[in-house]
Each structure stands twice: as structure tokens, then as C-alpha cells.
Design goal:
Blueprint (H helix, E strand, L loop, with lengths): L2 E7 L5 H13 L4 E5 L10 H11 L5 H11 L4 E4 L2 H4 L3 H11 L3 E3 L3 H4 L4 H10 L3 E2 L1 E3 L5 H10 L4 E4 L12 H11 L4 E4 L5 H9 L4 E4 L1 H10 L1 H17 L1
Parallel strand pairs: 1-2, 1-9, 2-3, 3-4, 4-5, 6-7, 7-8, 8-9
Helix pairs in contact: 1-3, 1-12, 9-10, 11-12
EC number: 4.2.1.20
GO molecular function: tryptophan synthase activity
Family: Belongs to the TrpA family.
Length: about 240
């Protein structure tokens, strides 16, 4: 079965609607939830995700208690998406806190970009705390490194098709994924800028084991509210089941 990995910014658009949204994502068939923590500087996020961070920054003070509520609300694996840059000096504390709450994994989008010389040490440290290390790669990562980290990544290898979320890509998704599929010895989840259903279907046909969706949910919440975004998740689940 193809995996639907659904993203939500922690606390977006407000507390009640956020909890309603994550529950709805799971009820609609999301296999894994990615929860984005408010970063100090969202250098690899696109404008839509950045807007969601801005909204949340107006009110969210206690990240940990909301993560605890999230954990109680859903029973699928939770993977935290946050920047290593924000936690490099306090990583053990972060990982212990996640473990205490029952968070399953962590994904640092900047790991192979800004910390590539030390990535193995960080991956080892993450795993030593009982947290799964989900590794993020992109077209800018050299092929031999994509191959190597695919064997280290837990749950799946995340391949972002664009340099930032929601930014158009000059190369066809299908040709990109066909090539990457040959390098990856793991489940391959594609995201970080799948712009439409057509992209999603192309990625699945080219060998992806799942898709990660985030920007389109937030755009839908902005336009039509949480219920409409939950309906989108149902639609994506149906596409995955038909692939």
C-alpha cells in the first residue's frame, strides 16, 4: 500500500482547528503525520508554510504541551520536522523530550545541506535516543550520498523534488523519480513541492512508495477552512489506493 504522509504546522491555524485537522488527516487515511515546529528561520520552506509559521507565532507559547495533546489525539507515527540549526547545541534534550512525549521520528531538512560533514554523527545520536531518523534528500544531494543515506534512514527516505516547498521545478517529476528510485534502498516518499495531483500520480508511477503533502493543505485551509483540507486528504488517499 502506498503511504500518505501528511504535514501540519504545529498549532495552525489555531489550537482547536489544528487538533481537528490532525485527527481528520488520520481519519482520512494518512499513514504518518509530519508536524512542523516553528523555526527561528525557515530557510528551506516556501512562502505558504512560512505564512503558517507566522500565524502560529502570534499565539503558541507552549510547544510541548500541544505536542502531547497531538500524541494523545492520534495513533499513527508522528515525525517532527524542524531545523537542526535550531537545536544543534541542545540536541540530546530535544530528543529526550520527544521520546518522553511518544514522538516516533525527526526529520531535519538542513541535515544534508548545512551539516553534511557530520550527518552520520547526528543520525547516530538521534537513533541512540530511541527516535527514528528520517533523512531528507533533494536533487542537489549527490547520487552516491542519496544511495548511502537511504540505507540509514528510518521509516522511509524523504526525497524533496524542489529546493523549497511549492516552488516550480524545471525537470519532470517522473524522470527525476525514475532516476532516484534506482539509488534508494528503502521506502521512497516524495514531497517538498509536489504541486498538483498530476505530479503525485507521476511520482507514484515512477516508483515512489508514497507522497508527502503539506503546502496544498495549508493553502486549502487559508481559502476554505480545515474541513475542506481534510476532504483533500481523502482525495489523496483515494489516488494512492488507485496507484
Amino acid at each position: 500500500m502506498k503511504m500518505l504522509v501528511s504535514y501540519s504546522t504545529l498549532g495552525y491555524p489555531d489550537k482547536d482547528n489544528y487538533l481537528k485537522f490532525v485527527k481528520g488527516l488520520v481519519d482520512s487515511g494518512s499513514d504518518i503525520l509530519e508536524i512542523g515546529l516553528l523555526p527561528k528561520y525557515a530557510k528551506y520552506d516556501g512562502p505558504v508554510i512560512r505564512r503558517s509559521y507566522k500565524e502560529v507565532s502570534k499565539w503558541l507559547k507552549d510547544v510541548w504541551s500541544l505536542l502531547e495533546e497531538t500524541r494523545r489525539a492520534v495513533d499513527v507515527p508522528l515525525v517532527i520536522l524542524t531545523y537542526l540549526e535550531d537545536w544543534a547545541s541542545s540536541l540530546p534534550e530535544l530528543l529526550d523530550r520527544m521520546k518522553d512525549i511518544g514522538i516516533d521520528g525527526v526529520l531535519f531538512p538542513d541535515l544534508l545541506i548545512d551539516y553534511v560533514d557530520e550527518y552520520e554523527r547526528y543520525v547516530k545520536e538521534i537513533k541512540s535516543h530511541g527516535i527514528k531518523a528520517v533523512i531528507f534528500t533533494s536533487p542537489s544531494v549527490p547520487d552516491p550520498l542519496i544511495h548511502k543515506v537511504s540505507t540509514l534512514s528510518d521509516i522511509f527516505l524523504y526525497f524533496g523534488v524542489r529546493p523549497t516547498t511549492g516552488v516550480p521545478l524545471p525537470v519532470g517529476v517522473d524522470s527525476l523519480i525514475t532516476r532516484v528510485r534506482t539509488l534508494v534502498k528503502n521506502k521512497l516518499v516524495v514531497g517538498f513541492g509536489l504541486s498538483d495531483v498530476n505530479d503525485m500520480v507521476k511520482a507514484l508511477k515512477a516508483g515512489a512508495d508514497g507522497v508527502a503533502i503539506g503546502t496544498v493543505y495549508i493553502e486549502e485551509i487559508e481559502r476554505n477552512g480545515v474541513n475542506s483540507a481534510i476532504s483533500l486528504a481523502k482525495k489523496f488517499r483515494a489516488i494512492l489506493d488507485g496507484a
